[in-house]
Amino acid sequence: MIVLTGATAAWTQDWPQWRGPNRDDKDPGFTAPKTWPQQPTVKWKVTVGEADATPALVGGKLFVFSRQDDYEVIQCMDAANGMTLWSNRYEVLAPTGPAGGHAGPRSSPTVADGKVVTLGVRGTLSCLEADSGKLLWRKDDIRGWPGFFTSMSPLVVDGICIAQLGGKTNGAVVAYDLASGEEKWKWSGDGTAYASPVVMTVGDTKLIVTQTDKHLIALTLAEGKLAWEIPYIGKGMGAGNYDTPIIDGQTLIYTGLGRGTIATKLSKEGDTIVAAGLWTNMDNSPKFCSPVLKDGFLYGLAAGGKFYCIDATTGKTAWTEANGSRGDFGSIVDAGSVLIALTPQSELIVFQPSDKEFNEVASLKVADTPTYAQPLLSGNRLFVEDQDSVALLTLE
User: Can you give the pTM of this predicted structure?
Assistant: First the structure.
């Protein structure tokens, strides 16, 4: 299905990968309306297949990763009107067991250096030309996946593609040359989890920081050597390492179900990376929501569905929403003057960044079926992916 009502093509902010340009869920180009509408305007809506993966937006092109029948499909669409410019597909079995209710990909496309990289639910890593959709290379030699299948989004830095592949018994963080697909290094010290990696620079060393099955680790980008690790795994039903770490200068902030939120400072002494614990906050534990850091405060959605705010300097809880009950899922984007969250109930929640209290500005219904992908913002435009469709909405 495709519905068109016309749209202009002025994009103020690219969103090339999971959590945006710097993997921190910050969108300074968003323009908040003076008066929030009761409902957004649908400019176009296109059926794309099953997916939980957040699309990527680069240069007026929207890259969508989904499942159609027996295939995983990467589509490049004109962001202004939803028309498909190219698509590439490959046949793959859907998830089974408890994860079977989410048949589509969960990993977001990554667009960099004229290429787009995707990771399928059973670990198929693909790299295509962003302009044409031509397949450059595809990897599926590391068999296996974590218990609920893959959700890690590939990271590209300095011409290197980083992916966490395999399962609990054969997990590996692997670096490939983006242009050729040649393996540069592989670290296989732990099983694979669900969180996506980030880049952190300590001294003169670039590190890849990610959560594995049982640890939080930092690997050197140049060689893939283990520079630092700490045992870390969530506790309780559905426990696992899901959330993307937050980098704030030399401070590393990470979260997990039953583990609360932890801040650690990394520094370099000679050739060694050393860590100093700063604080631990056990008041709120997110499960499937990576917090966002804004103006010295962390904003998150705890398991059980309440928003919260933590002072990132002291680790003290500033506030917890009194009456929230939004479930274990959700995402939060720093949209400049406001924070914008999206829950699986397709409820877009706008609230003020404040260390005093939770102050909701607006609540909008943005889809008719569940929304597990993050909202993608650009100007006054909003891309929303629901159970089987992608829509462009405007907030006028």
Answer: 0.94
